[in-house]
Write the structure tokens for this entry.
Amino acid sequence: MKILTKYIKILYQFLKHHKGKWLVFILFSIVFFLIRFPYEETVLYLMNQLQKQTKSSIQLRYDSFHINPLGPALVFSNPKIITPVNQSTFTAQQLNVRPSYKSLLQLKEGFVVTLKWPASTVKATIRKKQIKKDLSGWFLKLKTHNFNPSLIKAFVSPLSKTKGKINIDMEVVVDPTFETQPEGSWSLSGENIYSQAFSYTFPNGMDVISLPDFKWSRINSIGQIKKGEITISDISFGEKTDVFQIKSRGIVSVNFIKKGFSKKIRPLFKSYNLGLDILIGEDWQQLERPLDLLLKNIKSKTPQGWHYLGHLKGNTANFLNPPTPVSKLPTLQEIQNPTDDETF
């Protein structure tokens, strides 16, 4: 023990008298590391991992990239993500990828991805998280600021004619095997969401729906998912001055499973218990037709158009139960703890 203490004292004195040299050595080592770091190989590895995890042929193209030593982060200029859906291209002004500081301290996998446009940002945090003693999963956090929905038109084509500002704050913990159901929460708000007239063809060409242009002055949504239950505290798209409005709250029971040889993630709906309030203008006949198929018995006429107000409840055995007309949109508490006559 005395010998070890003696050597520690000698090492301390050496470092104390030569700290300037050690500082220069460390700085030069960092610079050498930054110069010699295999950036191209790292980018290819990350893309291969993304393709492997998502089982898709997604591709990344960019004009140039560099490393920001203060991050440290890989910074891509004018990135273009080519999606396997119709080979459409998702573009941004800048893409930053850096390690998650919390994951580094815990010696776990994790990274932070930030997409930037002139007036919008999207930040996604992905890191390993212990769910149970012998089960680890992924913690996912998504945060957007003044996000324009038309920016993701490569993934959702009808949004190509939509603009506005949306802020999202979402967290979820996911077990990759889905033996344990996802748990998390979300909060969404937006304003001045405007969409030009567009047509949408349902899968397999079953039907085509055409909608006129519309505006939502304000949108809000708050909810959580826990133990296979999605609790919707509030969904409110549009205000009193808007010709198209949607309001809802309630509970949806659903289990996410991996099914088939492809092991694709599929939702298995078990039941729903929702309050629904929809207002549409008279020139919305294209939307009125599909709504009437499911909600005709809760439909009423208004001076501006049509009003659908009701309580929807069903399960696996009776999934398309006719909705019940109500006098007002039920609160979440009334849905969770209904009275004997279930009137609102």
Remarks:
- Residues 223-344 form one domain.
